[in-house]
Amino acid sequence: MRHLLSIESMSRADMETILAATAVVKRQRGRSTSAPLAGKTWALLFAKSSTRTRVSFEVGLRELGANVMFLSAGDIQLGRGEPIKDTARVLGRMVHGAVFRTFAQADVEEFARYSNIPTINALTDEEHPCQILTDIYTFQEKQGSIRGKIVTFVGDGACNVPASWVFAAAKLGFELRIAAPKPFQPPLSLLERAGFTHVHAQPSPTGEIIQGTVPSSGGRILLTADLKAAATRADLLYTDVWVSMGKEAEAAERIKVLGGYQINAELVKLAKPHAQVMHCLPAYRGKEIDEETFEAHAGTIFDQAENRLHTQKAIIAWLVAEGVTAGTVK
Ligand code: CP
Ligand code: NVA
Question: Is the pTM of this model over 0.85?
Answer without folding.
Answer: yes
